[in-house]
Amino acid sequence: MTRRYLIVGPPGVGKGTQADLIATEFGIPHVSTGAMLREHVARGTELGIKAKSTMDAGNLVPDDLVVAMLAERIAMDDARDGFILDGFPRNLAQANALDDLLAGGLDLVIALSVSDEEVLRRITGRRSCANGHVYHVTDNPPKVAGICDVDGFELFQRSDDTDEVVTNRLAVYRASTAPLLDYYARIVADVDGLGTVEQVRSRVFEVIGS
Length: 210
Known about the structure:
The structure is a single chain. The chain is of the alpha/beta class. It is built from 9 helices and 7 strands; from the N terminus they run E-H-E-H-H-H-E-H-E-H-E-E-H-H-E-H. The strands form 2 sheets. The chain has a 5-stranded parallel β-sheet with strand order 2-3-1-4-7, sandwiched between helices. Helix 1 packs across helix 9 and helix 6 packs across helix 7. It is globular.
């Protein structure tokens, strides 16, 4: 039995966290296109060099490069029995490219959802230190306000975690990614993303089991 899953949802809904839990449970790789791009750039592969030059110029990495990286990744031995995709496809053109890549297509699309207000609350409340430790002003506050528990560095809000940027990201999600729910309607399972990680995990595994 293959487990070829895709997890989708607006920014801040918890896709990466739930994808990690699915990957661990079933022994399949969590394939994040963001992580995949960073790995190729770090390794200095031919695809990574092409992607870096595009990113350095401030442009989006072309679909054909991302698809080529994805094709290489899911051809690896650890993905033989399946994978959980996170971050690709982001639009209908990428979904068509994925169909061309996968004989038989995906087995399940897990659609996490929370309100726009909750997305804004989650993302704009995040605070980070220079070493990348992440907190939340209400959900996971540091012991001393504004100071990292681990290294004592001052916490700050990332420039892309502001109301304006998050509102724009939500608009982009609705315009480009949300139509995937209709495209994959036959295999979409809607999951409420509100609650603790464990509560959401329980809902996710319930739809996988069904």
